[in-house]
Amino acid sequence: MTTHRSDVPPAAAGTPASAGDPSAWVGRTETVADRLDGHLAARVAVTLDVEAPGDGQPLPPLWHWAFFQNPLPAAGLGDDGHPARGGFLPPADGRNRMWAGGEVEFRQALRVGVDAERQTTIETVQEKSGTTGSLLFVTLRHEYVQAGELAIREWQNIVYRAPSPPKTSHEGDVPAAQWTMPVEPTPTLLFRYSAVTFNGHRIHYDHPYATEVEGYAGLVVHGPLLATLAVQAFCRANPQAAPRRLRYRGLRPLVVPQAFDVAGRIVAPGKAELWSANAQGMAQRAELEFD
């Protein structure tokens, strides 16, 4: 059961003056408490086709994305299935939302079956110009605390872009991999991952919306799912290694039913490159530091 608390600075309280200034949302905070329920962890495990951790055991890397969700009613959602714009996050009407990448610092493992808390702060809001037009970049800082100790610190980069044709390929060579895990994405996989992460974004399960409204070639594979699978493949290939810091960036979308690989290689002591790619090139690139 999650509990939620939000603190809003006066400048971002939804007044007419702040409504046209997304930077007024900087400094907003939100706290979500949750118990890392073993039943939900088991659902994540079957979604990813791995063994489930039991109560008291470490939650695998990046599985925390299935927890700490703020369960809004349907009336609190926008047309895209995300929380309506102008709530905790700044307004960005008429733009499509993307989870563009981020950085995760693993300080210690979260434990299944134990209460924990996510403390979120809107760290930056920036308007930039890109090849597809104006882009609004929002950076969130998350801190995950369990038993009074900071377990994970994370920066999440969200981009709001004007509707435009999504990229279908990425130039550049894909490196030679030291390990590879093939993935054949299906609507069921995407639905299940949306369900366990309580992600309502319709591009992942609503084919007419994904193709006709947002212009994708099919249902879109979640960026967080790509990162999770890439780290999972690393841990499988390097069972003695402990991830410490992950930096990842989305390059283009992957869609159902196009098969892809999550793969990687060690590039220096304690450093690895990870990626998701298919015949059309890379879709996500990451750097992982480990012990």
Helix content: 10-25%
Main pleated sheet: 11 strands, antiparallel
Terminal CA distance reads: 34 Å
Tertiary shape = globular
Low-confidence stretches: 10-18
As a whole number of angstroms, the C-alpha radius of gyration is 19 Å
Strand order in space, largest sheet: 1-2-4-5-6-3-8-11-10-9-7
H and E order: EHEHEEEEEHHHEEEE
The count of strands amounts to 11
Beta-strand percent range = 35-45%
What is the arithmetic mean of pLDDT? 91
Oligomer: single chain
Question: Which class of secondary structure composition applies to the elements?
Answer: alpha+beta
Structure annotation, total helices: 5
Give the gist of this structure.
By secondary structure, this protein is α+β, with helices and mostly antiparallel strands. The chain has helices spanning 16-19, 38-48, 187-196, 207-213, 223-237; strands spanning 3-7, 29-35, 96-106, 115-130, 133-146, 149-161, 179-183, 243-250, 260-268, 271-278, 281-290.
Describe this structure in words.
The chain has 291 residues and is of the alpha+beta class. The protein contains 5 helices and 11 strands; from the N terminus they run E-H-E-H-E-E-E-E-E-H-H-H-E-E-E-E. An 11-stranded antiparallel β-sheet has the order 1-2-4-5-6-3-8-11-10-9-7, with helices on one face. Mean pLDDT is 91; it is low at 10-18.
